[in-house]
Amino acid sequence: MSTPPQPQDGTGDAAPRTPAPEAAAAPAPARPKGGKAGRIGKIVAFVLAAALVKFGISYFVNAPVRAEVGDCVQVTGKDNDPKVETKKCDDKDANYKVLKVVENSFDTEACTVGEAALAQQWESEKFVLCLDPVKK
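Below the sequence we write its predicted structure tokens.
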């Protein structure tokens, strides 16, 4: 038995065969981007980030200054709402030096007469800074 002759394309090569339609690779179905779960995840991440910004930054910005004995500070603002910032003692803005720190107290009488007393509280943390004016 012999094989039937292959059709020629004029160059001596066999004519190219086209694959059957079933054999052609079907394109992969497009996957939905994100979907409902992805959108919910993004919303949750955004809400968490916003909460961290609001409460985390607030904690660090509003927390009282933890000056130690010997540190110098700049005290500005009103008596009922003082703003305290630590400074180097040779800084022109430093106006007080910390003489004593009274922990777990809000009693400004713990400082001796002549010293300025500054009570600070943040959540459950409280202390009094006993201050003396910086001599320049």
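The two ends are 118 Å apart (CA to CA).
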